[in-house]
Structures are given as structure tokens and as C-alpha cells.
Design a protein that fits this description.
By secondary structure, this protein is mainly alpha-helical. The chain has 20 helices and three strands. The structure holds N-hydroxyamidocarboxymethyldethia coenzyme *A.
């Protein structure tokens, strides 16, 4: 058995026993009260999921297995000392709870480069059967489902295996899927935006570097940016739409491809991952309508107010959990200031950051007026030459695989059962609180 699998088995088995024992001994203990407001506003703040990969604090932002993004920038292995950490290291950390060595990271890089070669030809036929103007997320998700013909979980399940071992073929499927997503993403990118001139995977590159390479942005700068991008989008606790959908579908023992595909359908929503391309749409439309590449703060303010007056949201701002500027926004802004300080889009993003929070706060209803990860990610990619913004949510999806699929392996290690919350009709809620109108 691969040593990483051996490691997670050694860590996971006692934890699985603890979960069973907790349910047995404390299954009836009340751990939290739930309000009607929580149920009817998206279950915010209701503890209802077991997730070990990361934790989101409303004030501080995300921590992966206890480490913040700036801490990990110092702790995770890198190719160049002044570069960004390899996302392989974050994957290892989320999977095992331990910081990886350079050898661990190389081991994963090599495995992914090798597994990436195994995409069956029909997957490309399926993508090619779609119109080129089908949104890249449609093409991406269709390819993910088409790859599920390779599901090792399904084969193992049909052969008949002990429930305790489900995590093993899940892990294999997860490793295959993660390895192949950059190839699929780059294929879609080149198909739609670069005349179907495809670039082969280079097994000597790391996972994120290979994505930049296959997309045709083979510079040190874009490799560095892609590593940062792949790290910061990887995971955001268990309750966000892409993680929760992956987990929910996985709870029916659907294979990793089906489960991840569900997550990606959620990521494609404008309130979630699609916000990264909508921010670009919003900025470009504003620039067109104002007629100036460098809109002033006053012009941005007027445009933002007009957006709200039309009953629309300002994309890239607000969050269901965060109540401060998203550290994933800050780390990207710092990267931009260091490597692309004069990029006009970054300057516009900085001006938006100055004016929009006050406007949102003045509405009195927006709980978090601060920018989230999507407020800047597209402008950063664009400033480094990846200007075709419909691909941005696909890139988000490639990164998100690291977290949600690690969560799926842990779901199977814990032996979590099928998820089945209770629903009630409106009258039940009315009666429950004695509502008189
Ligand atoms: N612009 C305008 N209005 C906003 C707003 C924004 N950026 N953010 C919240 N609001 C509004 C809500 O639409 C809601 O209005 P109504 O009461 O009229 O329905 C009100 O403020 C209260 O909402 P909330 O409780 O503050 O926010 P939610 O938890 O319901 O929603 C969202 C969180 C992220 C969906 C929301 O802030 C939003 O729509 N933001 C813009 C889209 C966006 O950037 N999404 C990406 C989020 C991060 C992410 O998941 N990335 O993948």
C-alpha cells in the first residue's frame, strides 16, 4: 500500500471508531439550539457537518488544519524559496493533518503526473460533441461525469467489499480525478479560446505549473500565480455549496466523479464560484458604460449604487460566513502589488475596495460588506494574460477538488451514513412559533 494511504488509514481508523463511539454514548446529547431564522435563511451557523480539512472563522477567515494562508506560505514546500507553495503540499496537509516534507510533495506531484495520462479518449469525444460556445463549466462538468466510467469505487463496490474499506477505492478515484482536472480544464480553455491548439502535459512540471503550461501560459510568473490560485481556492470548510453538495451526493455512496460533479454544479452558481467571472463582467460593463479604462472612485460609487438600485448584487462582495475582508482577497492583493503593481485592473479593484463596502453597509441589510475571494481573482489572472474570464470558474473548480475530495475520503474513513435532514411545510413553522400574522 502507498505510504500516504497507510498513513491516513492509521490516523483514520481510530477516528472512525471514535465517531461510532460518540454516536453510541452521546447520540442523544443536545449540542445546539436551532432557530426558525436559521432554517429559513440557509441554515447559517447551524452545526450539522463533520469536516476536518479546514475551519472558517467569521473574523479571521480560513485555516487549513489549523494553519492560516500566510502561515502556510512560509511552511509548505516550494520549488523556489521566494515562490508560492505547491498545492500538493496543502492536499497532503488536509489529507493527513501533518505538514508535508519536500519528498511527500514530490511523491504526490509524480503520482498526479502519472495518473493524468489515463484519461480515456471518449472523454474528449464527449467534450467535442458540445458546442464550443457552451459555457466552460458545462464542458468541465460533462467531462467529469464522462470520466466516471473509470470509477474504481464502483468496480470495487460491485465486487463486494467491507464497508470499512470504502475509503480506499474512493482515495484512488480522488487521486485519479484530481490528477486529470488540469488536463481537462486546459483542453477546454484551448478548445474554446485558442483555436483547438492543444498542449501536451509535461510530467516534469508540478500540478499547478502543468495547468499553466497546458493552457499556454508557460512563464515563471503564471506558474507562481497558478500555485497561489490553486492553494487559496482549495477548501472553505464543509458547508459551502460546492463542499456540501459533494458531501451530500457522496453520502449516497455515489462515486467521487458523481459527487464532485454535484459540487461543480453548485460552484457554477453566480452566488458561489461563478462570481469570479461575474466580477469581470461587472467591471468590464462599468468601464464600457463610463467610457474610461480608469474609472474614478466617484464614477465607481455611482455605478455601484446604480447596480443596487436595479435590485442586483455587487459580485465579489459579501459572504455567508465571513464578516471581514476575506484573507484570500488580501493575499491576492499583496501578490498583485508585488508582481503587477501597475496593472490597470488591479488599480480599479483597489478603488472598488475603497468605495463599495460603505455603500453596502449603508443598505443596512448586507451582513458583510467586505470583498470575498472573487473580488480580485479574475483581475489578477487577467493582469497576467489569462483574460478569457469564462474559464475562471473552471480554474476555481480544479482547485476546489483538493478540499472537497479530501473531505470525501474522510467521509468514507469516518463511515458517515447517508444524509437525510427533516423537512416541514410552511404551516409547521407557523404552528411551531404560534405565528399570528
Ligand atoms: N450586493 C448587494 N446585495 C447584497 C450583497 C452584495 N454583494 N451581499 C448580500 N446582499 C444582500 C442579499 O442579497 C440580501 O438581500 P435581501 O434581504 O434583499 O434578500 C441581504 O443583503 C442579506 O444577505 P446576507 O445575509 O448579507 O448574505 P447571504 O449570506 O444571504 O449571501 C452571498 C451571501 C455571498 C451570496 C451574498 O453576499 C452575495 O450575493 N454576494 C455577491 C455574489 C458573490 O460575490 N458571491 C461569491 C461569494 C463567495 C464565494 O462563495 N465564492 O465562491
Amino acid at each position: 500500500m502507498d505510504y500516504i494511504k497507510q498513513k491516513i488509514l492509521e490516523i483514520g481508523r481510530p477516528k472512525a471508531e471514535m465517531v461510532k463511539d460518540l454516536i453510541k454514548k452521546h447520540g442523544d446529547d443536545v449540542i445546539q439550539d436551532v432557530t426558525l431564522g436559521q432554517v429559513l435563511t440557509g441554515m447559517k451557523g447551524m452545526v450539522s457537518l463533520l469536516t476536518c480539512t479546514s475551519k472558517l472563522d467569521p473574523e479571521e477567515g480560513i485555516r487549513f488544519r489549523g494553519y492560516s494562508i500566510p502561515e502556510l506560505q512560509g511552511l509548505l514546500p516550494k520549488i523556489h524559496p521566494d515562490g508560492e507553495p505547491l498545492p500538493e503540499g496543502l492536499f497532503y496537509l488536509m489529507l493527513t493533518g501533518e505538514l508535508p516534507t519536500k519528498e511527500d510533495v514530490n511523491h504526490i506531484s509524480e503520482q498526479w503526473a502519472q495518473r493524468a495520462q489515463g484519461i480515456p479518449p471518449h472523454v474528449y469525444d464527449v467534450i467535442n460533441a458540445l458546442p464550443k460556445d457552451a459555457h466552460p463549466m458545462i464542458q468541465f462538468n460533462t467531462a467529469i461525469l464522462a470520466m466516471s466510467t473509470e470509477s474504481q469505487f464502483r468496480k470495487a463496490y460491485l465486487t463486494g467489499m467491507d464497508k470499512k474499506d470504502y475509503w480506499d477505492p474512493t482515495y484512488e478515484g480522488v487521486m485519479d480525478l484530481i490528477s486529470r482536472l488540469p488536463v481537462i480544464a486546459a483542453y477546454i480553455y484551448r478548445r474554446v479560446f485558442h483555436n483547438e491548439e492543444y498542449i501536451e502535459l509535461d510530467p516534469n512540471h508540478d500540478w499547478a505549473g502543468n495547468l499553466a503550461h497546458m493552457m499556454g501560459h508557460d512563464t515563471v510568473e503564471v506558474h507562481r500565480l497558478m500555485r497561489l490560485y490553486m492553494m487559496i481556492h482549495a477548501d472553505h470548510e464543509g458547508g459551502n455549496v460546492s463542499a456540501h453538495a459533494t458531501h451530500l451526493v457522496g453520502s449516497a455512496l455515489s462515486n467521487p466523479y458523481y459527487s464532485f460533479s454535484a459540487g461543480m454544479n453548485g460552484l457554477a452558481g453566480p452566488l458561489h464560484g461563478m462570481a469570479n467571472q461575474n466580477v469581470m463582467h461587472w467591471i468590464h460593463k462599468m468601464i464600457r458604460e463610463i467610457g474610461d479604462e480608469n474609472p474614478s472612485e466617484a464614477q465607481i460609487k455611482a455605478y455601484a449604487e446604480m447596480t443596487l438600485d436595479k435590485g442586483q448584487v455587487i459580485p465579489g462582495y459579501g459572504h455567508a460566513v465571513l464578516r471581514k475582508t476575506d484573507p484570500r482577497f488580501t493575499v491576492q492583493l499583496e501578490f498583485a502589488k508585488k508582481y503587477a503593481p501597475d496593472a490597470p485592473l488591479i488599480q480599479t479593484v483597489s478603488k472598488i475596495y475603497k468605495v463599495v463596502p460603505d455603500i453596502l453597509a449603508s443598505t443596512g441589510k448586507v451582513k458583510n460588506p467586505w470583498p470575498n475571494v472573487d473580488a480580485i481573482s479574475g483581475s489578477l489572472l487577467s493582469s497576467f494574460g489569462i483574460t478569457e474570464y469564462p474559464i475562471y470558474t473552471v480554474l476555481f473548480g480544479v482547485s476546489r477538488a483538493l478540499g472537497v475530495l479530501t473531505q470525501l475520503v474522510w467521509d468514507r474513513l469516518y463511515g458517515l451514513p447517508i444524509e437525510r435532514p427533516k423537512s416541514q411545510n410552511l404551516q409547521w413553522f407557523v404552528d411551531k412559533v404560534n405565528y399570528k400574522g
